[in-house]
Amino acid sequence: MKRAILAALGLATSLAMPATAEDIKVGLLLPYSGVYAALGNDIDAGFALGLETFGAETGATFEIVREDTEVKPPVALGKAKKLILQDKVDVMAGIVSSGVLGAVRDMVHGAGVPLIVANAGNDEATGIQCSPYITRMSFSNGQVNRPMGTWMAEQGIKKVYTLAPDYAAGRQMIDGFAQTFTAAGGEIVGQEFTPFQKTQDFGPYLAQAKASGADAVFVFYAGGEAISFVKQYDSFGLKADLPLYGSGFLTSALYVNAEGPAAEGVITALHYVPTIENDANKAFAEAFTAATGRVPSEYAVQGYDSARALVEAVKAGATDRESLANALRQVSFDGPRGPLSIDPATNNLIQPIYVYETIAGEGGLTQKVLAQLPAERDPVNGCEMAPVSN
Amino acid sequence: MFRHTPLRYGVLVLLAAAALFQAFTAEYFGLEILTEILILAMLVLALDMVAGFGGMVSLCHGALMGVGAYAYAMLTTKAGIAPPVAMAGSVAITGAAAWVIGAVCARSHGIYFIMATLAFGQMAYSWVFEAPVFGGDDGLGGIARLDLTMIGLDLTDSRSFALFCLFALGAAYGATVLILRSGLGRSLSGIMHNEQRMRALGLTVWRVKADVFGLSGMIAGLAGALAAQHIMFVSPGLLGWTVSGEALVVVILGGLGTLVGPLVGAAAFVVLKHELSAVTPYWHLVVGVILIAVVMSRANGIFGWVEARWGARIDRRVADATRKQQPGEVVSDA
Amino acid sequence: MANDLGFWTLQALNALQLSMLLFLLSIGLTVIFGLMHFVNLAHGSLYALGAYVAASLAAVGGFWMGFFLAPVAVAGVGILLYSGLIRRMRKSGPMAQVLVTFGLIFAMLDLTRIFWGDLALAIEVPALLDGRLSFLGVEYPTYRLFIIALGLAIIAALAFVLGRTQIGAMIRAGVDNDAMAACLGINVERLFFVVFCVGCALAGLAGAVAAPLLSVTPDMGLQILIPTLIVIVIGGLGSLKGAVAGSLIFGFVQTFGAVLAPQLASVLIYALLAAVLVIKPVGLFPAKG
User: Fold this and answer.
1) C contacts of B242 (beta carbons < 8 Å)
2) Interface predicted TM-score (ipTM)
3) Are residues A32 and A107 in the same domain?
4) How far apart (Å, rounded) are the C-alpha atoms in residues A389 and A383?
5) What CATH number is given for C5-279 in this structure?
6) In terms of domains, do A229 and A361 share one?
7) Which residues of chain A have a CB within 8 Å of the CB of B227?
8) What is the largest CA-CA distance in chain B?
9) pLDDT over threshold 70, residue B33
10) Chain B window 269-288: which residues touch A at a Cβ cutoff of 8 Å?
11) A259 and A368 assigned to the same domain
12) CA dist., res. B21 & res. B16, Å (int)
């Protein structure tokens, strides 16, 4: 069972300083096939770009071992074991679905291998199931949506109807929103969860939303479901009377062009938008587009920042599993998303949230940032974290 | 009815030897793959029992395995029941569920039977996916393995666990052979060949089908309990219809109605999948082309092909010596 | 929830629209099965292929180009499949057919990924069918009405062909007893070929029609396969009436299930399928007996 794909990113600097060169072996655990293959590829491209950009700041050589999770928890666990026990990686990164994260969590924690989560957003991973070895550089489901609840209430929206797929992430996204929206005086007039990945026709739910008497609709959908939803929402002509809001994955740069004009005017909130104005994002977006020909999505930036976090940890002197785990928890830097730091209580990333509107621009749809909401830490959610020994 | 031929014995011994060799020499990932093969082999054994010997082509065996896995997970983590009891419990629960499915679907045949079993499998899947008590899409973790330290086996060790699965597979194989040779098994093959006649002879056809389906379900449940312990985590994907579909493909690929063939198929399928997925993310394409090629060769799967080519010859030689076996019967029997 | 008539009219139209889409897929599958006793699990993959071809053509020559040419292209693939694989598989029993069509699903899934990538594609609704129409007192998207009209037109055309023409009589004879039909001088092989191609074309058409409504993803074929199989099994294999009845039952149960009993929505249709098979083990309107 030898792996063929060993992409050794032997950087020029490692040749220049052979005496001090550390060899850091990174296991990248991502879906390269299955429904989330597009996400996995974007994270992979972002991660590679991150190492290429910042890796030279250290004297270390980074070697990447890629493994395909196929979005199947049992497969992913087998691959994680292989990375830890056989390839003896120093650190792992990746993981798109929360189910996969749940499956590998005990293994990673038990073996004491640092894991940089580059997507999976289940609240538990940095809550009740938190681990000093698991650092999340992406987002948590609640974190992305809570600021939006307050913001929408501030815009004078009183009654909202919510829709999301019926699975853990869908419920957590909506709960996060509903919690702050009602706290700010708003009212949820109806709520429906659609069968996950089995709903192709949203017509029945849209008719209900229309009849609910809400001022606006707030939804979470991603990937293929997001495209179907946005297009069908528009085809029923609901956008004019019943504006569509949502979690920013709804109009992600990864697939917003497939939604076409139907996505125009949809207002959503997310931790990254390709049009954020700062120097780090400008450099990142240009480099990513040059490398892949695509506009970077939130998935790409998560991969990029995961690589950056790893580099920062190595720069701080970390060389092995233990020291990397400790160092990863303390990284902070200004990235494309703005100032980032790790919450010591949960190991979840603290980051600003951006409210943006999808608008027509030159050469396709683009994103107009309406507001930058302040960075906020997640509640501890039952996380009790023993510090990594010594 | 199932019969061991010298060829089948030979292949069984070879398979067991290869598994033992792998178990004692392989590295961690090799052991993972071995365990995966052993668990899949147990599932396809259960499926071949109903599909190959009773004509009940089930598209819910993956879901039955999932029921076993979830039953074990729920019993150990939520009900706090000791692993050995939980294992027995999960086998019993899965068997009961399978019995009911078998009884309800007994009147359907062919594609209708396939679809009826699919319906039950999907119902189980949807239920597990949506009921919060099962952990939904995120699954359930923290599942303990059986504690066999009193007989000197530490199952948290991959090697010991692989050996344990091999032992369980051997037991399941023995049980399957015994069932197929019993009166029940003979009635079952009678039903497959001529259901009308068996009914006319006064046999309660649906009872026979349900009983065998239930027994098959128990083996699938055991496979599920082992799968839950192997990965120490369960998720709804275990119950998806593609798992059942893959199991069916493995049975046909190996050789329907040969018991030994599906074991060969399981090993071939898992090894192929891992080797290919290491080389290309498009491994489905290669597997698909191989499946098509196997069918176009007009053989009854890999093992069926071997039997058709060499089996009859070896048999004839043995038959000449013993004057007991009829040449050519192997193929029609399968 | 609204109790007014408009709400229920809207939902009934939604159900009808879903039914018609499923009908386009299931009629091909059910007649192929009835005639050739061939379980083509790869039918869903042909639907996905139709959607992808339509998306590519729409990018070049607009929606209508995809709409008319995608069925032709998929029928072309059908011809290849028929002459390369399926004709030889006709006598090899259902197990071999399951295996070979499963192999096709695997192969076509990855081929679409290689050709079109993992990212979802989409087609814009053509200008002619954009917007909404007032219909039975509700505003309903024109494109969805178009799907309903298209489905009804195809039902009518097939009912005419199968019921009133010579080739229809030949197909019915073939479904009933292909050996006897061959004895009566019907070229059964050619009949199979024609029916298979038309079935593939309809699957391609369904894909092309669904593409502007949904997103075009590699796994859309797998997603639609199970609903299609449920439709033809509830309806009974081999008959137009069965496909129509099955599609309508599925569409209405799915839509109104989602409205009236959302917690049960995903289990409901399977429970119904199981119930039908317990009461009528060969479906509601099977072609034979």
Assistant:
1) 222
2) 0.87
3) yes
4) 18
5) 1.10.3470
6) yes
7) 74
8) 64
9) yes
10) 274-275, 277-279, 281-284
11) yes
12) 8
Statement to judge: residues A234 and A161 lie in one domain: yes
DSSP state of C121: B
Confidence of residue A278 (pLDDT cuts 50, 70, 90): very high
Chains touching chain B through at least 3 C-beta pairs below 8 angstroms are A, C
Question: What is the distance between the alpha carbons of residues A338 and A388, in angstroms, rounded to a whole number?
Answer: 28
Contacts of residue A92, defined as CB under 8 A and 6 or more positions apart, other chains included, come to A26, A27, A28, A29, A80, A83, A84, A108, A113, A114, A115, A116
Residue A188 predicted with pLDDT over 60: yes
pLDDT at A387: 63
B28, B233, B279 member nearest A73 (Cβ) = B233
Task: Kindly determine whether residue C95 and residue B249, on different chains, have CB atoms separated by under 8 Å.
Answer: no
Closest to A367 in 3D by CA, of A250, A276, A246, A244: A276
Domain span holding position A363? 142-270+353-373
- Closest Cα partner for C280 from C228, C240, C245? C245
Strands A338-342 and C138-141: unpaired
Residues A34 and A176 in one domain: no
Amino acid sitting at position B292: I
- Domain map of chain C by residue range? 5-279
- Counted domains in chain A: 2
Q: Which of A2, A77, A167 sits opposite B233 (nearest CB)?
A: A77
Which residues does chain C have within 8 Å of residue A236's beta carbon, measured at their own beta carbons?
132, 139, 141
Same-domain status, A154 and A101: no
Q: Are C215 and A255 a contacting pair at CB < 8 A? A: yes
Tell the residue number behind the tokens 């259901």, with chain if given. B195
**What residue type is assigned to position A390 of the chain?**
N
Residue B326: band (very low, low, confident or very high) from pLDDT cuts 50, 70, 90: very low
Q: Give CA separation, A319 vs A7, A59, A64, A328, C100, in Å.
A: 20, 11, 16, 11, 51
Structure tokens at B38: 């052993």
Residue C18 contacts B, CB cutoff 8 Å: no
Please give the average per-residue pLDDT across B260-273, as a whole number.
93
DSSP string across B86-137: HHHHHHHHHHHHHHHHHHHHTT--HHHHHHHHHHHHHHHHHHHHH-GGGTGG
What CA–CA distances, in Å, run from A263 to A259, A348, B195, C83? 6, 31, 59, 44
Please report residues of C whose CB lies closer than 8 A to that of B250.
Answer: none
Closest CA to C76 of C41, C39, C49: C49
Residue A256 sits in a domain whose CATH number is 3.40.50.2300
Tokens in use for B134?
């099962």
Same domain, A232 and A368: yes
With a CB-CB cutoff of 8 Å, which residues 196-255 of chain A face chain B?
196
